[in-house]
Amino acid sequence: MTVSITISEQTAMDQAVRHLVTKFNPKGNRIGWLMMASILIEAWDLYSIAFVLIFISQQYHPSALLLGLAAAGTQGGAVVGAIAGGWLTDRLGRRVMFLSTMIMFIIFAIAQAFVPSVAWLAVVRLVLGIPLGSDISNGYTYIMDAMPKGDREVMGNRWQFMFAVGQVITLAVVTVFILSGMDHELIWRVTLGLGVVPAAVILFLRHDLPETVVWLVRRGRFREAKQVAARQFDDALDMLPDHDVTVPRPRAMAFLSETFRDPLRGRATFAGWIACVAQSGEFSTFAFYIPTLFVMVGVSTVLGTTLVTMALYVIAAISGWVGPLITPKIGHRGISQWGFGIVLVSLLVAAWALFHDAKMVLPFAAAAMLWGHYWDASNCMTIPSVVARPQYRGTASGFAYMFVKLPAFLAIFLFPSLFAAIGQASATLLVAVFPLIGLLSAIFILPEVYGFEQD
After folding, report:
1. Which of 229, 231, 275, 320 has the fewest CB atoms within 10 Å around its CB?
2. Could you give the CA distance from residue 342 to residue 338 in angstroms, rounded to a whole number?
3. What is the distance between the alpha carbons of residues 311 and 253, in angstroms, rounded to a whole number?
């Protein structure tokens, strides 16, 4: 029998959630890595386009705006997916969302390999971005629900490592295609379509994951929560009654008032949003167009640029692995300050190199920039997700990812035109504003929230 919630049941619910935050989950790392694995798919799709953009341009000769729209399409769709997906994650549950988004991605990943024009490619990629944005916000919610404090922050900060691994794999595949003499049209079509392979594997591995215990508790589904907790934690959650209760559904916008009512939550969330915009802006301008930039300034051939870029992302992967490991020692504030500081200096050096035609400096400046970026971007999603109240966590993660994807869409869409209007050197100098803003926010706004324990 389902009854209305009482004060004692609400207290039991809060106790259970606090208990779960500190509870070791022997399956937590597997769950975390399965959520992180989906970032390989996003990395493949979002950035494979950067590595084959030159082939698409050579075939269709689109305008700079249309080419930018095709490149940025998934970023724009991800804005919608992040907001809608995060909200639906809180209302419908974590499990139903991570399964449905992966199925949707598989369908449209195949479709983009068969588009007849750049315009159609842009349309398909806009739709494809919706499940990508939804899956990231859902994945962070699942990690924060399923892992204990401390561990969940380290796992959440690994998303940049997974991005770098995805980019290295993509570059390696493109390099093999180029060396094999494959037709350029076939290269970009096969490269874009291959994202369906890891997506299908991850869907298979995820299909047996249960709903998170935290979500079941917050929805008042106590009996199911106790059953899942007994299987996962060997813990019957004895503080919960043996009957279900009716809990009001979380309102999407209520999380803003709930978040900013608490000064620490409010400051951390706001700083996380700033970091999302700053890291997205710095990457989606300079770093996203590194392959194209190198060709434009004559650093090397297309193949040579691909190999140099792959080496850069190997360095980025190392940075993405090291960053989460040192986060427990220097905290979220430390990793953000060091990351944005390194990117700021690197972009200033890159701008100087472009102004003075010092082409050989560019790869080293780009390497340093990526090292710093993979630190400053590591926790921008983790911070708003970890401090959010459990009932609003999907919405909070979706809002944070919106602040990643919206500037990414605008930057990738418009940056080629900015390049053409003011030149590579001036455009690179302008990009340095992003890490400057991120650095100031990390110093003056962001509180230390590593190991944050929710109430």
Report:
1. 231
2. 6
3. 44
CATH number, span 3-235+254-444: 1.20.1250.20
pLDDT digits (tens, 9 = 90+) for 327-355: 999 999 999 999 999 999 999 998 998 88
Tally the C-alpha atoms within 13 A of residue 11's C-alpha that lie toward its C-beta: 3
pLDDT digits (tens, 9 = 90+) for 10-67: 888 888 888 887 776 766 788 888 888 888 888 887 778 877 888 898 899 888 778 8
Distance CA 89, CA 143 (A): 13
Across all residues in the chain, what is the average pLDDT? 87
Tokens 């940075």 map to which residue?
Answer: 319
Torsion of CA 304, 309, 311, 315, to 10 degrees: 160
Stated as kind and residue range, the H or E segment containing 3 is strand 3-4
- Give 243's DSSP letter: S
Which conformational region is residue 251 in: left (phi greater than 0), alpha (psi within -120 to 50 degrees), or beta? Answer: beta
Please indicate, yes or no, whether the overall pTM of this predicted structure exceeds 0.70: yes
Query: Which residues face 245 on adjacent strands?
Result: 3
Tell me the helix, strand and coil percentages in the chain, rounded to 5.
80, 0, 20
Q: Hey, where are the domains in the chain? A: 3-235+254-444
- Asked if residues 36 and 151 have their Cβ atoms less than 8 Å apart, the reply is no
Cα–Cα dist 309/219, whole Å: 47
Q: How far apart are the first and last CA of the chain?
A: 28
Rg of the chain in Å (alpha carbons) = 22
Q: Which of 390, 170, 165, 375 is nearest to 278 (CA)?
A: 375
- Say if CB 372 and CB 279 are below 8 A apart: no
